[in-house]
Structures are given as structure tokens and as C-alpha cells.
Amino acid sequence: MLTLRRGLAASRALRRFSTKPHLTPPTSLSEGEKLIYYKLVDKFSPTELAVQDISGGCGDFYAIKIASGAFKGLSTLNQHRLVTRVLKEEIEGIHGLQVKTIPPPS
């Protein structure tokens, strides 16, 4: 769960990130989902991205599905490592993370 301090930091971080023109975030994202969403957009320029709080809304467990050319030629393990490195700060404050990465077609 994002604490007030983390919530304020998340709000500031959201303003730093720019959305890529080809990917529009859902309007129903929570603050925690938005922070993760924009960090991943900024780093990976994904062709598909879904971020969902699957903890019932408390921000303790997230599911991420991301498709990106950045994963080309990498093992699934290394794709997941890339994602978790980008989200290192966010992962420290949650209980679980489910990641599904999709590399581009060969």
C-alpha cells in the first residue's frame, strides 16, 4: 500500500513521465497503477501495456502485461529482470508482482 509519503512522491513522478503517442492509458487507473504504467511506458515504449492492482484496491499486489521490442532476443527471466529493475522502488512497498512479458514476433 502506498503511504502518504510514497503517494506524494508518486504524484510528482507521474508529472515527470511523458506518455508515448501510440499508447493511451486507461482512465480508471489508481495512483499506484499510473506510476507503474508511466514508468514502463517511459522505459520500454510498449506496444501493449496493462497494469492492474489485483489486491482489491489496497496496492499490495499488481499484475503487469507488457509487450515491447526491448525484450527481443532475451529469455523470459531476463525480460522480467528488466521490468523489475525499472520498478525497484515500487516493488519495495508491495507484497507481490505478477509480470507477463511479450517480445516482438521473430
Describe what you observe in this structure.
With 106 residues, the protein is of the alpha+beta class. The chain has a domain at 31-102: BolA-like (GMP Synthetase, Chain A, domain 3, 2-Layer Sandwich), CATH 3.30.300. Helix content is 41%, strand content 19%. The protein contains 4 helices and 3 strands. Strands 1-2-3 form a 3-stranded mixed beta sheet. β1 (48-53) and β2 (61-67) form a beta hairpin. The longest helix is centred in the middle third of the chain and has 14 residues, at 31-44. The N and C termini lie far apart (39 Å). Residues 1-6 and 8-21 have low confidence and may be disordered.
- What strand order characterises the main sheet? 1-2-3
Average pLDDT for all residues: 83
**How can the largest sheet be summarized?**
3 strands, mixed
Percent of residues in helical segments? 40-55%
* Radius of gyration (Å): 13 Å
Which sequence of SSEs, written as H and E, runs from N to C?
Answer: HHEEHHE
**How much of the polypeptide forms β-strand, as a percent range?**
15-25%
Using the coordinates shown, work out and report the CATH topology of one domain.
GMP Synthetase, Chain A, domain 3
**Count of distinct strands:** 3
Mass-distribution shape: globular
Structural class label? alpha+beta
Family: Belongs to the BolA/IbaG family.
Organism: Rhizopogon vesiculosus
Protein name: Bola-like protein
Pfam families: BolA (PF01722)
